[in-house]
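Marked as duplicate of an earlier ticket. Keeping the data here for the record.
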Amino acid sequence: MTKLFKKFSLLQRVYICLLLSLSFLLLLAFIQLSKDFIASGANIEAQQDLKKVNQVINPYTNNPVLANYARYQDAVNKNDSAALKQVAYDSQGTYLEYESALRLARMTNLPAVERVTYYQRATELFSTDVLLKHERYTLNLEFAQFAEQAGLTQTALAAYEEALPLDEAVAGLERLQTDPLKLANVLLKARFNNGALRALGSLKVPSIDAPAYRALRQNDKAIQSYNDWLAEDPGNTSALSGKAWMLLRVGDFDESDAIFAQLSGSDALLGRGIIAENRGDFATAANYYRQGGSQRYQWDLAEIHEDNGRIQAALDIYMHLAKGSSSYTDDAAYRAFVLAQSQGNTTLAQEARALIPANSFFRLSLGEQFDLGLTVKRPIGQPVPAVVTLSDALAQSGNLDAAAGELIFALRTVETEEDLVLYGTKLNSLGDYMYAARTAQRFIDRGSQNLDVWRVAYPMAYPDLVFQEAQQNGLEPSLIWSVMRVESVFFPRAISRSNARGLMQFIDSTWTWMAERMSETPTNPYEPAENIRYGAEYLKYLLEYFDGDIELAVPAYNGGQGFIKRLYEGTVVNQNKPEYYRRIDKTETREYLQKVLVAKEIYRVLYSNP
């Protein structure tokens, strides 16, 4: 290369060097231009991505129906509390107001006192439905913990009280309430009896001690506390009644009856009736029970008469109950019918049979089908309510929670069957069944005979899942829906007092046992697909266990197959169905059997037994 370069003159060498230098500079410039072009492209792409992100964050723009939701999302994106307050004001009484109030309550840039008002509004707007009690407790607990951290003690105490019976709420009350008497009263009201006694410490407060010891079945301490209470406040009716019941519990009938005789009301009459029954004075007991309106004890007394061969006395009570209006009406009418038949009293048997309510379990047991007398009342050309249009737009934007929420809030004030059916049908299409079903049931309880109202109350919930599991397990879909309706009213997050969970309500031990039977790890009971799968498998197992007898399998789902098998095959019932119906009265399982099979028949009527 050096030899080649020496062949050129000095001037040529200079030109060559300049040319090389210029080429190098041009190369550098080209490289920089390329970088700038790439950066520019990336910037344009980033701007486009940002635009896309903004569209995802606020999917409500350019739709007038969703104007308030667009304002809400803009306010959230900008953390603009003033704009959010205006949205809440403009959306009063709706799901969007609830969302706005809760969002404002959680805004850390707002003064604590102002956030309290939004927490209060959110809790006011939250559903009071009993199936949502756990969610309501949790929201109040969040409110209480915020108020405690903000130093707002009285507000926190009130919110903790609303969050009972959560353990964190009890702990919060015990931290903040410095007055032991107030704390004990709150805990006693919430049935935390040990907590109430613990709160009092060495203090003796008979009006708290007595009912707490009574609930804890510490009889001697309860009686002593009632005596102390009466020493402080002679003639106090609550103390007198409590002492009378405690004396009855320990078998001191004479003094107990003497105290009840001083008192008025159904509670005292019930107490005197139990004492008379324990003394063997059944006529007097029946008289007290009737005066006090106690159907349960009248039923129990009728059973005692029947078990001891006093058939006419039993019939008198059964017929009295059959002519009333209570949960025992249908059972009593049927039992009177069975007994009258066994006595050959056809006239009384006919009278009793006529008293069995139409469309009841016992009508089914006698081979009758339901006639609900339903008619179709579908509106023609009715304008679509604004809330339905709003819900549709929210669903199309991808916000299914808000789409359902707006309809749920509208159901709270729905007045016409037509609107109920519209809202309920839309909610069902969104996979939400509970709110509409419960609202429709209230219309039915008021006498609605609209076919579509009944179908909202008895929906074909989760149809794909139910049909699939019914087919795989050889079940009627209507059986799965009926159990689901009685267990949870189609609410997938339902939790019972015994901690049974999900659509078909499994306690942990049964859920784990079912998983073992299916050779798998227990899944999530709040997942509809899994809960329905386990429920269908369990129903199949019970039907096989009881040789296909649905009247044994269904109550076993509630009370356990061991209990039902022992009862039905035992020497008392001895596989006698009418006797079986009577004997399971001693648990909630009796009503469970009736509710499920009545619901199943209603599904047959509504959907031609899908």
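See parent ticket for discussion. Residues 289 and 297 are 7 Å apart (CA to CA).
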